[in-house]
Amino acid sequence: MSFPPLAPVLDLSANPFAAARRPSRAPLATLFAAALLATTAGCAGGLDEPERFTGASSCAPGTTASSILQAQCFACHSTETKATGANLDLQAAGLPGRLYTTNAACNSQPMADSANPSQSFFLKKLTASPGCGARMPQGGALNAADTACLTEWLVAGKPNP
After folding, report:
1. How far apart are CA 87 and CA 90, in angstroms?
2. What would the pLDDT profile of 12-70 be if each residue is shown by its tens digit?
3. How many CA atoms lie within 13 A of 24 on its CB side?
4. Which residues contact 120 (CB under 8 A, 6 or more apart)?
5. 3-state DSSP call for residue 141?
6. Residue 52 near residue 46, CB atoms below 8 Å
7. What is the pLDDT of residue 121?
8. CA end-to-end span of the chain
């Protein structure tokens, strides 16, 4: 015995026009996905890395002026040890602004020059010929990246007139 062919089952949940619309939506969806990817691909920095959002920094990745000062200077120039470091406290709040009002022990010049911060005595102390006193840090020299990082930090901290 043979049965007649079954009629196609009507799927009431299916949208008969969806297949016709999908081809026209595909380019739009692809464009949206590409735009989303393009706007988020370069956003790898966190709020604790503002240089990732404001532009390139002279500091090596993972390095800040604070970390350089802490590692290279605080042994002699911290709040606790400032008496052994020519009475210069690089740890207390207000740096780099305080450098613009602090005079060097060896020549009474301001540590930072507001007219030309990149030529400040603080930065000259990092060179082989600082003009007076010994090169800092004692017993060694900063690498070029750390010196550039501190220069950028001091210039950015220039007080407003």
Report:
1. 10
2. 555 555 555 545 555 666 655 565 555 555 544 444 444 444 556 789 999 999 999 99
3. 5
4. 99, 110, 111, 112, 113, 154
5. coil
6. yes
7. 93
8. 104
What per-residue confidence (pLDDT) applies to 140? Answer: 87
Q: What is the pLDDT of residue 19?
A: 52
Backbone φ and ψ for 103, nearest 5 degrees, come out as: -95, 145
What is the pTM assigned to this prediction?
Answer: 0.61
> Among all chains, which residue has been given the structure tokens 């604070």?
66
Q: What is the pLDDT of residues 76-103, one digit of tens each?
A: 888 888 767 667 889 888 888 889 888 8
Q: Which amino acid is at 147?
A: T
Tell me the C-alpha to C-alpha distance, in Å, between residue 141 and each of 12, 28, 68, 103, 126. Answer: 79, 57, 12, 22, 7
DSSP type of residue 103 = B
Give Cα 118 to chain centroid, integer Å.
19
Dihedral (Cα; 57, 63, 64, 69), 10-degree rounding: -140
94 Ramachandran zone, left/alpha/beta (phi>0; psi -120 to 50): left
Under 8 Å between Cβ of 126 and 151: no
Helices (H) and strands (E) in the chain — how many of each?
A: 6, 0
Q: Which amino acid is at 139?
A: G
Q: Are 74 and 91 in contact (CB under 8 A)?
A: yes
pLDDT in tens, 129-140: 998 888 999 888
